[in-house]
């Protein structure tokens, strides 16, 4: 079972390598390789989750070096849970992009570049979730970022190059910050293994602890798009191709949040930085949602809600209680699926009508009722309409915040409710314009991206939506709804994961083998 | 372990240089910034590894710490890859737009354009208001002048009427006196005609004998006055009209100019987005 831990990382990397070797030939084999690799990842993640939940954290020592010396991969409840949801989501997105490639009769070149970059990014995400070593976490970040650079600038059009430049420089700045934090950590403690750091940080002088924690926090906050350093996200995400944006929105920011959870729970438990995190969460929620209300483009609006809802997770982490952490994890899982499916549906809308600008859309309710349903369900889920998982996640966070008893969490609970309302307002505004008002239908056959833009075949709107495309999006929407149906066992599981996180003992003993 | 200041000073200088370059708009400068920053941070990691020692064999005393070196190697490889990617990005940007400057993001441009458009339409509106005010002023002036003219006319007419009335009463008085003296109607008429035809006025008789003539004169004077007045009025109107036309033309030119500037400021890429 321990040997399986490295599969979600190695398999996509291997598949990417094979696909690069195949090149532009054998399209059926290409898509089969991608789908099989990601499908196996889903199955392995599910197995790992079951094992980690019953037997405690699983550890794989890479290269056979024992833990404090070598690098290890650790699969505990939190990481396997996030891994399972993220691999399921990436599988659906892969189905979407394969179906898209077939529907568009694309040349071989996009698939030969898109799929390897996508798989490398997926491997990076899995590595980040499983990493038991701070330097390996850095490598995982670089892995997923290098994949995302290629996906973001895919096709090399002018807006994508511009967005890619800011995105790359921003990501590089954060990576350098991370490296500086690594240097300080290594100089102060002589190790970068997370388990050993958990033991050694407590013995350090307070100002050194603060320095390391704040530097790491800033590096992760840039990745997670938390308010003062979130401006890059709504600028760069909307220009990317739809499947890429969907995965970025679903996973990349969550990797940042996951790292913050690890940092706050394992390395600096219940430190004074939690208060700072609360303020930051407050600012993130409100600034993000106010930005969303002002937008007229679907993708930009969704990007701003993405920033805003990161605030909920940071709030849950900042509460420093088992209930708060459990709420944050639940919300994170819910948000991965919902945000991804919303961006994919937006991709379908763009495919159908040729635009995502709300001022040019209209009458989608009558022209494509299926799309309307696919948009409506996750949108209502995102804004937290009662029976859905978005509501349940918020309830968990609100309960945890009120149980805390201090005034600041109560303020945050109020801010969270306001944010939820404003999200509903932003969504309702878009819904009313794009779906309900009179049709502004673009006729089928309109050229969306002409040949000069992409240097490839022109993208053309169609009235037909291929079955596989809608099926993959539908599967994601159903996955989002499954969180509602399975909310009881799932919240129990997140509660156990949160308890394991705050206990810290299981993780450290599993890695270091009980040695002090 | 002893701490030497020099490596840290070098790290600081390189990181500071790198950050400064990273903030540049040109991608090539940002790229050099990334390289400098990356090297500075790598140096920091090596320095964090402690004193240099012997080669790292197990069991040898006084060995160098191999871990930071391994980390730095990894970091160097990653920086190399990213540098290659950034170079490709620079090349593509240069191919597409002929420069490697990173443009402002769409939101910024949109906000700036909206502000500029607001300013321009405010300016146009202010100009239009000015023009309207000018027109209203000119109309009021014209109306005032016409009213004055009409008043003067009325006064003159009243004066003329009074004088004609006086002439009539004098004539009647004279005829009444003639009748009292017992003159016959024929005689009276004859004398009246004589008086009307007489060249010079005899003040002793107290009767303006050339009354008809005087009436004629007065009437002529009146007509002349009216014509003069009308001519003056016409000229005045013409002048006012010309002034208004001039102002309107000027205004239109200004508005057109503003509109053109506005159209230039409008980016076709952002059309219809807000």
TrEMBL record, chain A:
Key word Membrane present: yes
Membrane topology: Multi-pass membrane protein
Primary site of residence: membrane
Keywords: Cell membrane, Membrane, Transmembrane, Transmembrane helix
Localization: Cell membrane; Membrane
Top-rank lineage group of the source organism: Bacteria
GO biological process per UniProt: ATP synthesis coupled electron transport
Domain NADH:quinone oxidoreductase/Mrp antiporter transmembrane: 131-423
GO terms for cellular component: plasma membrane
Coiled-coil blocks: none
NCBIfam families: PRK12665.1
Family: Belongs to the CPA3 antiporters (TC 2.A.63) subunit D family.
GO molecular function: NADH dehydrogenase (ubiquinone) activity
InterPro entries in alphabetical order: CPA3_Na-H_Antiporter_D, NADH_UbQ_OxRdtase, ND/Mrp_TM
Record-given protein name: Na+/H+ antiporter subunit D
Pfam families the UniProt entry points to: Proton_antipo_M
TrEMBL record, chain B:
GO CC annotations on file: plasma membrane
Topology of this chain in the membrane: Multi-pass membrane protein
Pfam assignment, any one: Oxidored_q2
Main location (coarse class): membrane
The entry's keywords: Cell membrane, Membrane, Transmembrane, Transmembrane helix
Cellular compartments annotated: Cell membrane
Stated family: Belongs to the CPA3 antiporters (TC 2.A.63) subunit C family.
NCBIfam families: PRK07946.1
Protein name from the UniProt record: Na(+)/H(+) antiporter subunit C
């Amino acid at each position: 079972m321990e040997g399986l831990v490295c599969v979600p990382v190695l398999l996509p990397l291997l598949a990417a390598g094979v696909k690069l070797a195949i090149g532009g030939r054998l399209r059926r084999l290409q898509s089969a390789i991608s789908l099989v690799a990601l499908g196996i990842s889903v199955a392995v993640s599910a197995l790992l989750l079951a094992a980690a939940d019953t037997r405690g954290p699983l550890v794989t020592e890479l290269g056979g070096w024992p833990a404090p010396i070598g690098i290890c991969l650790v699969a505990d409840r939190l990481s396997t849970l996030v891994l399972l949801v993220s691999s399921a989501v990436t599988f659906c997105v892969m189905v979407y992009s394969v179906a898209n490639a077939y529907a568009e009769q694309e040349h071989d070149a996009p698939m030969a570049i898109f799929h390897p970059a996508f798989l490398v990014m997926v491997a990076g995400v899995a590595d980040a979730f499983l990493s038991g070593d701070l330097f390996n976490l850095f490598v995982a970040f670089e892995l997923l970022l290098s994949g995302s650079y290629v996906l973001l600038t895919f096709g090399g059009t002018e807006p994508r190059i511009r967005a890619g430049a800011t995105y790359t420089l921003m990501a590089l700045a954060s990576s350098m910050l991370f490296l500086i934090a690594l240097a300080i950590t290594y100089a102060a403690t002589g190790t970068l293994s997370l388990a050993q750091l958990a033991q050694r940080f407590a013995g350090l002088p307070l100002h050194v602890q603060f320095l390391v924690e704040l530097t790491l926090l800033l590096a992760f906050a840039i990745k997670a798009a938390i308010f003062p350093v979130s401006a890059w996200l709504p600028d760069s995400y909307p220009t990317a191709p739809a499947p890429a944006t969907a995965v970025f929105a679903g996973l990349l920011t969550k990797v940042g949040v996951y790292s913050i959870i690890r940092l706050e729970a394992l390395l600096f438990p219940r430190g004074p930085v939690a208060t700072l995190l609360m303020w930051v969460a407050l600012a993130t929620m409100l600034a993000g949602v106010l930005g969303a209300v002002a937008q007229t483009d679907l993708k930009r609006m969704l990007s701003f809600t993405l920033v805003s809802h990161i605030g909920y997770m940071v709030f849950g982490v900042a509460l420093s209680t088992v209930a708060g952490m459990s709420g944050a994890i639940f919300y994170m899982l819910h948000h991965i699926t919902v945000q991804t499916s919303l961006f994919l549906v937006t991709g379908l809308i763009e495919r159908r009508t040729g635009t995502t600008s709300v001022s040019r859309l209209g009458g989608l309710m009558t022209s494509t009722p299926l799309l309307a349903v696919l948009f409506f369900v996750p949108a209502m889920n995102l804004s937290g309409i009662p029976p859905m998982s978005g509501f349940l996640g918020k309830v968990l966070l609100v309960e945890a915040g009120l149980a805390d008893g201090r005034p600041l969490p109560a303020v945050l609970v109020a801010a969270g409710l306001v944010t939820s309302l404003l999200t509903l307002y932003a969504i309702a505004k878009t819904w009313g314009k794009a779906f309900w008002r009179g049709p502004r239908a673009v006729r089928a056959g309109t050229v969306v991206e002409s040949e000069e833009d992409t240097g490839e075949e022109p993208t053309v709107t169609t009235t037909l939506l291929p079955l596989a495309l809608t099926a993959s999006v539908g599967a994601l929407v159903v996955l989002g709804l499954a969180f509602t149906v399975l909310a009881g066992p799932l919240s129990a599981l997140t509660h156990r994961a949160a308890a394991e996180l705050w206990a810290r003992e299981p993780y450290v003993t599993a890695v270091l083998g009980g040695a002090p | 372990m002893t701490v030497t200041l020099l490596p840290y000073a070098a790290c600081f200088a390189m990181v500071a240089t790198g950050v400064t370059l990273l903030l540049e708009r040109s991608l090539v400068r940002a790229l050099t910034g990334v390289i400098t920053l990356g090297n500075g941070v790598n140096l920091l990691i090596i320095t964090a590894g402690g004193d240099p020692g012997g080669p790292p064999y197990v069991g040898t005393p006084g060995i160098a710490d191999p871990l930071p070196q391994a980390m730095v190697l990894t970091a160097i490889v990653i920086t190399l890859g990213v540098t290659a990617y950034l170079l490709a990005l620079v090349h593509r940007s240069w191919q597409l737009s002929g420069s490697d400057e990173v443009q402002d993001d769409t939101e910024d441009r949109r906000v700036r354009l909206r502000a500029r458009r607001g300013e321009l339409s405010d300016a146009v509106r202010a100009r239009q208001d000015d023009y309207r005010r000018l027109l209203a002023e000119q109309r009021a002036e014209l109306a005032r002048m016409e009213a004055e003219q009409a008043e003067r006319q009325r006064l003159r007419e009243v004066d003329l009427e009074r004088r004609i009335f006086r002439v009539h009463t004098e004539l009647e008085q004279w005829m009444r006196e003639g009748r009292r003296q017992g003159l016959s109607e024929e005689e009276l008429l004859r004398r009246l005609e004589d008086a009307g035809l007489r060249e010079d006025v005899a003040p002793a008789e107290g009767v303006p004998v050339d009354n008809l003539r005087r009436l004629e004169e007065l009437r002529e004077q009146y007509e002349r006055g009216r014509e003069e007045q009308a001519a003056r009025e016409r000229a005045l109107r013409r002048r006012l009209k010309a002034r208004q036309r001039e102002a309107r033309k000027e205004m239109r030119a200004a508005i057109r100019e503003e509109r053109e500037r506005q159209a230039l400021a409008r980016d076709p890429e952002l059309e219809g987005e807000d």
